[in-house]
What we know:
This protein is an alpha/beta fold. The protein has one domain: Vaccinia Virus protein VP39 (Rossmann fold). Helices cover 35% and strands 16% of the residues. It has nine helices and eleven strands. The chain has helices at residues 24-37, 58-72, 86-91, 104-121, 136-147, 189-198, 213-216, 235-245, 264-277, and strands at residues 6-8, 46-48, 79-81, 95-96, 126-130, 154-158, 206-210, 225-230, 249-257, 283-285, 291-294. The strands form two sheets. Strands 1-10-11-9-8-5-6-7 form an eight-stranded mixed beta sheet, with helices on both faces. Strands 3-2-4 form a three-stranded antiparallel beta sheet, with no helix packed on it. Helix 6 (189-198) links the parallel strand 6 (154-158) and strand 7 (206-210). The longest helix is centred in the middle third of the chain and has 18 residues, at 104-121. The model is unreliable at 10-18 and 51-59 (pLDDT under 50).
Amino acid sequence: MNxxxxxxxxxxxxxxxxxxxxxxxxxxxxxxxKEVIIDVDNxxxxxxxxxxPDRSYWLKRTAIxxxxxxxxxxxxxxxxxxxxxSSDREIGLGWPINGYxxxxxxxxxxxxxxxxxxxxxxxxxxxxxxGVWRGGACIFARAVCEVYNENRMIWVADSFEGLPxxxxxxxxxxxxxxxxxxxxxxVSLEQVKENFKRFDLLDDKVQFLKGWFKDTLPSAPxxxxxxxxxxxxxxESTMDALKxxxxxxxAGGFLIVDDYGVIPACRKAVHDYRNEHGITDEIIDIDxxxxxxxxxxx
Length: 298
């Protein structure tokens, strides 16, 4: 298999800010927004408890999932004390109760880094995220564009009904995936729009694509893209997004894959697509889970 070398990304915050032409107060605004989006204030308190992380404990996972989903329909949830606190928020472990994203600080920093690079170098195209949960990453991307006065569209693509059931006949790599059954992953379009409104960031530069990626992305009225962020978890969702969006990614733009480091099916989809299209651009590790590369060419 022709796979690019995977290397570690620089994690010094200064390396995410060396392109800044904004004021100190605007920089502080973006930093504060990141902290609110991942609910840093509650990092040492409670977090959502979705299910046991080890998929081999199928019976235990199924029982806890059933309980969580039943409680969720009554407006209740199971939480646990987060002993590791801010270290979890840094790398996106745990699901924050009051946060707008579960991706953590390093992956938010990566979004900022990628956007600042394309702004500084004049790489054309919009931003899109496929799989948005409560919308936090897209909210932050819209804020970065606002601060830099960049006239780019933010595309927010999701079913807004959770994940699809695995289609094992077409995508055997997704066999055993049970993310579709988790009630906490179902966040409505109306709720995500409301979350944008809370930060005064819902405007005509934010466009929503509701539905399964295989149905919405091929015909979406998207021109060029400069930053593509995939967070569909599954092989099917990742491959559907790559097929529709990567050809629209400008040379010099960035492709980010949220779960590359932790979900084998997602990683396989990335490798299969790259191998099929002869992509050898270096894959860079963000925080162990998220990875990204920069599209070469001219």
